[in-house]
Amino acid sequence: MSDVFDRIILHVDLNSFFATAEQQANPFLRGKPVGILKAQGRTCVIAASIEAKKQGVKTGMALSDAKKLCPSLILVPADFDKYADITYRFINICKSYSPACEVFSLDECFIDVTESEKFYGNAFNIAFDLKDRIRREIGDYISCSIGISHNRYLAKLASGQIKSDGLFWITPDNMLDVLDKSDLMDVCGLGRGLYKHLIALSVDNFLTLRLCSLEFLYKHFGPFWSVHLYNLARGIDHSQVNPFYELPDAKSVGRTYTTHRNLYKKEEIWQLLRNLCEEATAKARLMNLVGRYVGIVFRGGEASYYGHRTLKTYINDPRIFFEICAEITKDWPLGKSLPVRFCGVTLGMLTKKEFLPTPLFPSERRRNRLIGAIDRINNQFGDYTVYPAVLSRMPIIRPEVNGYFGDKSYRLRYLLREK
Amino acid sequence: METEINEVVPVWVFFDSSAILGPIFPIAMNWRRRLIKFEKIIFTSSKKIGVIKFVDIICQSTGANYELEYNSDNNIWKLKRIMPKE
User: Fold this and answer.
1) Contacts of residue A34 in chain B, CB cutoff 8 Å?
2) What's the sign of the alpha-carbon dihedral A141, A146, A152, A158?
3) Partner of A80 for a Cys bridge, out of A4, A125, A400, B69, CB 3.0 to 4.6 A?
4) A315 and A404 assigned to the same domain
């Protein structure tokens, strides 16, 4: 048991990351409520500054609602290159304290300092040093909250205890007190569906969850979630900090996009789909992977269409990927009866390209060489230097980071390779 | 709030590979026949388009903050934006 409590794990979370990055870059915005939009003209606030959050503005809120709550909200279009650069520097700072550094999202890292703590005296020294280095090396306005505990789950909970530039240590002594004061939805890994199920059983806090027996939880939540919930209520988590350089290969790659306006014309929808297919397959090729599962989703208005196909052969050619997507969607009422607002494509069941046999037919080999040449040109001169003619009469949708690092292994490799 | 400029400007810099915020440190620039001296660097970030590296540096001067962009391919500096001070 003592081994379990001997681990020391830090969770570092950059506060209001996107908004603070903008406030760092433009001092005029400091101390003012700032809302980040994905691009000029978009209507969803993807991040809010601490000042805006105090006035009730939340991530994902519609712009009209945010403006009602905070009329003085300053809107800034997101600059994903800037955020990626800060993330790169943030990872470099975090990994200098221990090689066991897990990049959890764009602005969050877990660091297992069990072995390296001695070099700094104690974990508090590491936390203060880390905060200081972030201020010096990234920017004086960038702050982070740090949670320290003996496992990942409690470290993450600890970093949320004091918002904005906080530092909190959950020890075995104060663990149950903190848990009992926390909301069930505060903890990582408890989704809305599970929460609703718990509420239906009159379990609305950690104290009542702890009173539930394993048998009771097993009956209602099955073998996996029962143990997970049982452990959560007691602050138990045996998961390891997965170092960023040991990330397993991606299981799937994809790209989703929400459009500025409803798309009614088939031509526009096909262009959007082709653009997303180009990016998803480019990601796979960059990681030297090929896949044989094709998934596609379209949303618009109240309707949502999803389809997928498992192929016999592996692909990473954007044209073939697009043609399969088009085949899947051929009976969908896209356009007039289903105006498209959201589109997503996935290439799954990925495997290493070198595991595949060499193409048999000359036409296939020629096509592979062509794609290879296009990739080399795009790597040399920038994404979409060469692209299919079908995309020539539309604004190209380019790769961008997302806050949750959905395609983490791709992003990290891309990020670390780029610099 | 801020003014887009996007003009090529001559910038005096010194290079220091041990500097925390990056190896390039702008000292002053000549913009529209005015010499603007920089007091400190507020923020730096970099991005790559293909193999070309672009470094964005936001410098503070007495009157305003200036966003400069350095293109590693042609060594050209561009004044991108002027932003008011706090």
Assistant:
1) none
2) negative
3) A400
4) yes
